[in-house]
Amino acid sequence: MDRLTLINTALVCARWYPRAMRNLYYTVLLLDRTSFDLLARQSRRSSRVKKWLATTHELVAVDTYSPFHDRSQDKRRYLHALPLALGRAMSGVQVLEVGGFHPFMRPDSLRSLEQFNSVRSLDLTDCALSNLSQLRRIISSFPQLTDLALRQRIISPRHPDSPQVAGTQLEYHSQSDIRILCLVIHVDRYHEESYEAIINWLVFSGICTSLNDLTISWIDKSSLCVASVDGLLNAAGPSLRRYSESASDSGQDYIRAI
To answer: What percent of the chain has pLDDT over 90?
Structure first.
């Protein structure tokens, strides 16, 4: 049922209202700064909206970042403000999908992600984080995390606009109490080197020692990626029950599942 229908359904009668509103707020989509500002303002001013935000199961937030962006558009970004503005009100969110984390995320913004303390599934797509340390902070914010997806660009340390953040050199052997059960990685041809570092950290942190389900897809896979994925498979060991791999090499596509 689409959002307009749910809104109309909520207005039919008092008995229909609770179920319609619960479905309306089950998944919240924030696709630009305008929708974020509106929801943040409503959550502050309306106790009714705050009540329904507490029931939200899935939050999808997209804040597209491009290396070729117009500086006049900087003020339209909002992901740095998302956890501070809505984290506490939406602390029941279990599925968090984010597109466009940019290299200017402040440390306090990353720490505030902990307010989404019920997140079990995290999906990151087309981000431009400055370094591996920022990614580690994001993942470590969700102690109940069991499902992780990393798609397309995640780290872009060579971008000329990326600030020099302290602690860019992260020791791979820093351990984590998080144990991922399902991991999805989509590597594109332009960011294989950064994914090698990401996968190495996932292996040495201990996050993948209980992995049940691993899905890897890549374009023009390199020996670097193959070696890194081998490390993931070894880290998962006997806990791994499903492995799926898809690739597009020299114009030939294939899918392999075990």
So the answer is: 47
